[in-house]
Amino acid sequence: MSLSEIGMQSYTYRKFSVQELVDQAQSLGISAVELWPGHLPPDASEATVEEVLAYCRESGVRICGYGVVNLSQADIRQSLAFAKRLGVDYVSVDVHPEDVEGQREAVAVAEELGLKLAIHNHGPTHHYSTPEDVVRVIEAYPEVFGACVDTGHFLRSGVDPVAAIERLSPRVHAVHIKDFLDERTEVLPGTGRLNLSDTLRALRAHGFATAYVIEYEAEPEDPTPDMQKAVAAVREALAGLE
Which of 82, 137, 184, 228 could form a disulfide with 42 if both were Cys (CB 3.0 to 4.6 A apart)? Predict the structure, then answer.
């Protein structure tokens, strides 16, 4: 994997089939996808999983992550074993802060399988709104349990993503790159309140080791024109770090 690998969260293409979103990733020059369970659930048939994995291999698109998985509602072993089969670097997760039993099971299974878990923050009113909300849970566990920094949702919560990365490192196991003008208005990365270069620089400075995943939710019917601009912006920002 390149240190400048760009990926996308497949939820961006939630109105498309998994094969269609892989086609779109390939057309965008994206080599990695964090696969949303809505595109490929853990209980998918053997034939379906094999078909998707073969299609990804043929397209040159790897599955870098899986999620977001709600561990407080899912069969933890089934979900994490499924993610392991997909060959992911990490699983982005939600787990209720008070669900200590679920947290312990998830960490034990993740350690057994060699997976990293990354708590996904989800903006104002969510139980993971700030870096401290995440720290209060993960600090009780080994480093395998970390964070997926969603830059847009931290902006919505009034948190500087760079400060969030500093606070959560070295446990930033994943990133969702998105940008907002205010709590409701999503825009292309780097055109709102997100300092794209500083964010990527902070990730790299702390040894970030997987794909820089773009998630864009604003145009579900046809995200590609905006995704072309988003990929170009992230690629340019990464090139500026060389």
Answer: 82
